[in-house]
Automatic annotation (TrEMBL):
Pfam families: MFS_1. Signal peptide: none annotated. InterPro entries: MFS, MFS_trans_sf. This is MFS transporter. Keywords: Cell membrane, Membrane, Transmembrane, Transmembrane helix, Transport. It comes from the Bacteria. The chain crosses the membrane at residues 79-97, 103-127, 174-195, 228-251, 263-281, 293-316, 322-345, 357-379, 385-404. It is a multi-pass membrane protein. It is found in: Cell membrane. Its main location: membrane.
Length: 428
């Protein structure tokens, strides 16, 4: 295949995987919204609702490293298509069960678990495939489009689900999900997941435990990758301060109505959408870790500013407006952290280990979410929210300054700092 043909195919991939991701995730968010409303309507129990959330997190956190091993050792295209087909069959099984026996909360739990398992394999494999689907020059654009599709699904899923729920039975939600995944399956089946692969055909396959062990060994040898993974772990832990605290402060302390809180949360998704479009249309960030460090410090600072409505005498409209702007800006800074690091990691990690590294990163990040929620849930019940937010803000700034210190940035981007030294020498 000539370079011109590869470039044309990469352009096709750019739009095809964006469309497939957007359609499948839209179907997933519509179904998740329908499941949530159904569980609350049938049980009225927060515990039942939380159980379904655990079913949507825990299997993926546990299986992400295994999914990474599979992505590194087996056909990425086959893995993704099998996972998508698994989702269709799982939801189809629930539809059949509903038609013959009737919908039940326990059936939803089982479906959520199987869907989450399929999502772990397709998600990790897709993440490790982006660098082989498009040319390196358009990697940032591809990842921006990938995030853009997620943002659209986050905004559109609840909107579509909310409109459907009052007028249609749960079977319609199941059918929409199946149709969405079937379309994604057809689109993904036309993609060449080896287009820009640098991996040979004669790579020796390791047994699963040996493969996972070699993945750990590879990470230990790569100081920059190890640093990024530790940052990911700590940031996901401390970001629970806003995940838990945002809802608690806005609804419980400031008494904002739930409908208005919906607008506040939606502004975060809009912020992600705007940031995705920005990164998709600009040149690739030259010094990704430094850009992410600045974004992380700005994000931590904005977290500290979230206390202002708690100490200032704002009107109700002022409170809602403040947090709409806050969530919007917070999401932009979050993208400013994730996008440059994501592109950098795609290029830095050797293709043979990419799936295992991304799988382990996902496990570390997702395992911190429930732990962080538990810790901050207790803290918000015992300490003033202003103290928690300000201390957390200071901790995140400290993490950014220490873990992304200049010596680490020089090791990650020697070409930039060497050029900087030469430029300064010439200037003097």
């Amino acid at each position: 295949m000539t370079e011109a043909e590869k470039y044309k195919k990469a352009t096709y991939h750019l739009w095809t995987f964006t469309a497939s991701k957007m359609i499948s995730m839209l179907g997933a968010h519509v179904l998740a919204f329908g499941f949530s409303l159904y569980i609350l309507a049938m049980t009225g129990s927060a515990t039942s609702f939380a159980t379904n959330m655990i079913c949507s997190i825990l299997p993926r956190a546990l299986l992400a490293p295994v999914a990474g091993y599979v992505a590194d050792h087996y056909s990425k295209k086959r893995t993704i298509l099998i996972a998508q087909a698994g989702t269709i069959l799982t939801v189809g099984g629930l539809l059949l069960y509903t038609e013959t026996v009737g919908m039940s909360v326990y059936a939803i739990y089982v479906t959520t678990i199987f869907n989450t398992i399929c999502s772990a394999f397709s998600g990790v494999t897709f993440s490790s495939s982006i660098a082989t689907l498009v040319n390196p020059e358009r990697l940032q654009k591809a990842m921006s489009f990938n995030q853009l599709s997620t943002s659209v699904a986050m905004i559109g899923g609840p909107v579509i689900g909310g409109m459907l729920y009052g007028f249609f039975p749960m079977e319609v939600f199941l059918i929409i999900n199946m149709v969405a995944y079937a379309i994604a399956f057809c689109l993904e089946s036309t993609m060449n997941f080896k287009l820009y692969s640098t991996r040979g055909e004669d790579v020796k396959k390791e047994k699963i435990w040996a493969g996972l062990a070699s993945g750990f060994h590879y990470i230990k040898q790569q100081k920059v990758i190890k640093t990024v993974m530790w940052i990911s772990l700590w940031i996901n832990l401390f970001f629970s301060a806003i995940v838990v605290g945002g809802t608690y402060i806005i609804i419980e302390i400031l008494k904002v109505k739930s409908t208005h809180f919906g607008f506040i949360e939606a502004s975060g998704a809009v912020g992600m959408l705007v940031a995705s479009l920005y990164f998709a249309t600009r040149a690739e960030v030259k010094v990704p870790l430094r850009f992410s460090k600045i974004s992380l410090i700005l994000l931590a600072s904005s977290l500290g500013l979230a206390v202002i409505p708690l100490v200032a005498n704002f009107s109700y409209l002022g409170i809602v407006t403040f947090y709409i702007v806050f969530y919007f800006i917070f999401a932009i800074f979050e993208m400013g952290i994730n996008m440059p690091i994501g592109v950098y990691m795609q290029k830095l990690i050797t293709e043979e280990y990419r799936g295992r590294v991304f799988g382990l990163m996902e496990t570390m990040a997702m395992s911190m979410m429930p732990i962080g929620m538990m810790i901050f849930g207790v803290l918000y019940d015992t300490l003033p929210a202003t103290v928690i937010l300000l201390v957390t803000s200071a901790i995140i700034v400290t993490i950014a300054l220490v873990m992304l210190r200049t010596s680490v940035l020089k090791e990650a981007h020697p070409e930039f700092y060497e050029q900087k030294i030469v430029t300064e020498s010439v200037a003097n």
